[in-house]
Amino acid sequence: MTIVYEPGYARPNTDAPVGFDIEIGNPMATAWRPLGGYIGAEFEWDWNKPTSATIRIKGDHPMAGYLVDCRRKVIHVRTEHNGIPWDGRVLRANVKGKPGREIITLTCISNLVWLMSGLVWVNNTLPPEFQINITGKQNVKWGPFDMVSKLYLAEVMTRLRKPVYGKLPVRRTVPELPDLDDIDTLDDLLDIAAEALDEMCVLQARATQLDELFDQTVQMQEIGLSCHLWSIADGKPSPKVFNTDTIAQLQSVMDYTSDNFLNFTNPGNILGLQDPSTWNKMTRSGYVFDTHAKRDMRKIQFRTDSTQVEYYERDVAHATAHKVLIGGKAPEIMNQVIEWGANFALQLLLNALFPGLNLGTILVGDLFDDVFFAFQQFWDPDLEDDLGEHGLGEKFGDNTAAWSLDAWANGQSTLKENSGSDTVKIQLSSGTPDGRGYSMGVDDGTGRRFQVGDIVTLWDRGTTVEQWISNVRVADNGERMVETVTLGQDRAKDGWERVFAHLQNYAGIFRGIANSL
């Protein structure tokens, strides 16, 4: 088969890469070629955040001209490590050095960056000048996070006409039925109710970026996120997805068993609005978004006294609160109801005490606003017991209206942020010469492969603890592969992550100011 390249899409050299088999794609992701030789490369995998990659090549590399031309051109990059894929795009190209001896550094971003590239409008079917929804001034959705996130994504990407799809089937978590013999007290009943809601969420958006909208729930429930490119050039069957190429083909997220959401008005597809051959399929190169639960891989034990561990860093932070207070404002409907009741009671009292003076028209106004149900407390009794009476007490979360849709999420996330942390970074040689070492990759039957999101055990100075893998960086320095594994949620960010964190914070602040005026 002959592949025709766009102007400027150079053919690479044929030198075999040292560690990573890197491929470069054309802008439509319909043709790929190996990058060939490079000086050094590092790729990162994370449980729920966009990741970066760095590739360094010589200035005389056959594909240098094409790779540097990334300003107005999408340059796809993909590779894998022991079967675990990484795909993204060139975000920045830096050329530095003496003419003829330059070094080109390519900075890439993974395709989960799509969550940073879409705003959830109040109503995605109306123009921005007129935004109203059945849920009012916010786009509100609730249910299991997998369903809610894919519903938001389908709406936004359909409006933008971007090839980003939610993977099917929707992952629904159904709690196990409780054993009635275990319910002895009200606390037991409340615990069961809380566990049943563990994977439920209520989200509301008003021109909110997708990643910001999802972040609080993702961090609180420690959910994994992925968004991988599927290329039609590979000849592989399409994954099963919500086909959102056009509004006419937008399939039901709430009832993912139906063929298409117009079934009830178009039985038998007599109007020809949908092509059944495209239902649940991708017809062009695009991106598949999905959520993930952790895997129990506690049989894998990292030991700090292992010869495979070249360097490690452990950071343990003390808990700063076991109680959190949210609020300062009561739900508006609560203020209104209390005002109505107070006015009614005052009028009855005045008319009874001073009949004929017409004093019943005196109103209390907003005197009782934010008095009742203005605050809400969240408490971690197990943490309080562990800390004892000398443990630090409480923190204030934010001034979200208490007992509102997002107060629970804010309270729980603030409580988690102040509950302390235990993070470990381990630098490993990728495998060992005798094949007995651990390495990131798909399961190969040896029981020595791990992935981000795996729950593993750590042995350190005679103590064994359980922890989960949140991030893995794999670097090829030209001689060998080195893996840096992060156990637990890492609060410290490197320079690249700080840049994106600042961009997210500024964007959120600006939208908050705009929506508050």
Structural description of this entry:
By secondary structure, this protein is an alpha+beta fold. Helix content is 21%, strand content 29%. It has helices spanning 64-68, 145-160, 186-196, 210-221, 332-353, 381-387, 407-417, 495-516; strands spanning 23-25, 32-34, 40-46, 52-58, 76-81, 84-96, 103-110, 119-120, 139-144, 164-166, 200-205, 208-209, 224-230, 286-292, 295-303, 309-317, 323-327, 375-379, 394-396, 421-429, 439-440, 449-450, 454-460, 463-476, 481-487. The strands form six sheets. Strands 1, 2, 3, 4, 5, 6, 7, 15, 16, 20, 23, 24 and 25 form a 13-stranded mixed beta sheet that branches. Strands 10-14-13 form a three-stranded mixed beta sheet, covered by helices on one side. β24 (463-476) and β25 form a beta hairpin. The radius of gyration is 28 Å and the shape is globular. The N and C termini lie far apart (59 Å). Mean pLDDT is 76; it is low at 1-18, 248-262 and 502-517.
How many H/I helical runs? Answer: 8
Distance between the termini: 59 Å
Count every beta strand, where a strand is a DSSP E run of 2 or more residues. 25
The assigned structural class equals: alpha+beta
- The oligomeric status of these chains comes to single chain
- Main sheet makeup: 13 strands, mixed
Mean pLDDT: 76
Proportion of strand residues: 25-35%
Estimate the helix proportion, in percent: 10-25%
Which residue ranges are poorly predicted, with pLDDT under 50 across at least 5 consecutive positions? 1-18, 248-262, 502-517
| C-alpha-based Rg, rounded | 28 Å
Shape: globular
